[in-house]
Design brief:
Mean pLDDT: 76
Subcellular location: Membrane
Strand content: 5-15%
Membrane topology: Multi-pass membrane protein
Low-confidence stretches: 1-8, 283-356
Protein name: Rhodopsin domain-containing protein
CATH topology of the largest domain: Rhopdopsin 7-helix transmembrane proteins
Strand order of the largest sheet: 5-4-7-6
Family: Belongs to the SAT4 family.
Shape: elongated
InterPro entries: Rhodopsin_dom_fungi, SAT4-like
């Protein structure tokens, strides 16, 4: 059989177990993602809102999938009543647009996040290619939805064979599903490998480069899922046991949508992990005369001057740790990588500085003490 099986040949049990397991993991990861955005870095970006929309679409698709299994999806068709067959197929097809839109919006969220990364060379070309891949996937999603719901006339015949009408578009739909699946696999792979083009040129230890590439490369799993999903498309056009054989396609579609969501949510989790673990990436803070200097694992040095309340400082770090700083509003976009000089590399990071009254008093007191020791009249 082409579908996974559970006890008594009920593939619906496998579908429910797999999809709800991934849902639970995704729920935890997305919550941590928003904890990091809201309470750690205090900045909710566009990709954060798109991730939230993706998760809402995932929730709706999961609900309709569960309803479909409740009515018999995953069970052999000869063990179901005619009414159960109609309802199982109906809610299966109703879940389709939410699954496809979750895939498309999730990838646009990933593109929006990756667009904040700039390499030392050909940054505009890379950015354009990144958006082309994301928008092509979105366009493909819209097109395939049109083919899905136009394959039968009238549309309810898609899940109820007893309704008079025709389904002349089934073969055409299978071909389009192959094309969409191939594009989905390619876009997943591209989005997971794109950061490698940037991180591998940074002047840091190879182990850290590998760690960054692995962190951003979880989309490879989504690409593998898309390949397996595409291999199940053929069941749509030739099966006589649709409620059972279609379950394999539903399993891989569910796994792909969740892995796309996870791949876009895991990289921004680092601030939350650092906050929870209380390690803050082994960072050491110290004060110099009129500046605050932040040293990160001896890899680079970030130096900032006093920042007005409610503003953000962006720090540019070169290969030799030469810092530059400029101030911007809190809604400034996070630019992690961009050009520095001719052929150089720099990383620009937005660090939010919240200066409450107690912190300001302590800072001023420290500066006054240092100035007094050096015989300087003020800071």
């Amino acid at each position: 059989m082409s579908s996974p099986t559970g006890p008594s040949g009920n593939a619906g049990i496998v579908l429910v177990a797999v999809s709800w397991t991934f849902f639970a993991v995704s729920f935890v990861v997305v919550c941590l993602r928003f904890y990091a955005d809201i309470f750690v870095i205090h900045l909710v970006r566009t990709d954060s809102y798109l991730t939230f929309l993706t998760f809402l679409l995932v929730i709706v698709s999961q609900v309709f999938t569960q309803i479909s299994v409740h009515y018999g999806m995953g069970t052999h068709i000869d063990a179901l009543t005619p009414n159960a067959i109609v309802l199982a197929l109906k809610y299966c097809w109703v879940a389709q647009p939410f699954q496809l839109l979750a895939l498309a919006v999730g990838k646009i969220a990933a593109v929006t996040y990756l667009a904040t990364f700039r390499g030392p060379r050909n940054a505009n070309i890379k950015l354009t290619l990144l958006w082309i891949v994301g928008l092509v996937q979105l366009f493909s999603c819209i097109v395939i939805l049109g083919f899905i719901y136009s394959q039968c006339s009238p549309m309810p015949k898609l899940w109820n064979e007893e309704i008079p009408g025709t389904c002349n578009g089934r073969t055409r739909n299978v071909y389009m599903a192959y094309l969409d699946g191939s594009l989905s696999a390619f876009s997943n792979l591209f989005l997971s490998l794109y950061p490698t083009l940037i991180f591998w040129n940074l002047q840091m230890r190879t182990s850290k480069k590998v760690a960054l590439c692995l962190l951003f490369g979880t989309g490879v799993v989504a690409a593998i899922c898309a390949v397996f999903k595409t291999t199940k498309v053929s069941t749509l056009g030739k099966t006589t046991d649709i409620t059972y054989d279609m379950t394999g396609l539903m399993v891989w579609t569910a796994v792909e949508q969740y892995t796309v969501l996870l791949a876009g949510s895991i990289p921004p989790l680092r601030p939350a992990i650092n906050e929870i673990s209380k390690k803050a990436s082994n960072t050491t803070y110290y004060l110099s005369r009129a500046t605050k200097t932040l040293r990160l694992d001896d890899e680079a040095t970030l130096t900032s001057s006093t920042v007005p309340p409610g503003h953000t400082s962006a720090y540019t770090v070169g290969a030799k740790g030469r810092p530059n700083a400029f101030h911007a509003k809190r809604d400034s976009t996070e630019n992690f990588l961009s050009d520095m000089g001719e052929g150089g590399i720099m990383m620009t990071t937005n660090i939010e500085v919240e200066r409450n009254r107690v912190y300001a008093q302590r800072l001023n007191a420290s500066r006054d003490l240092m100035a007094a020791r050096e015989g300087v009249g003020g800071v």
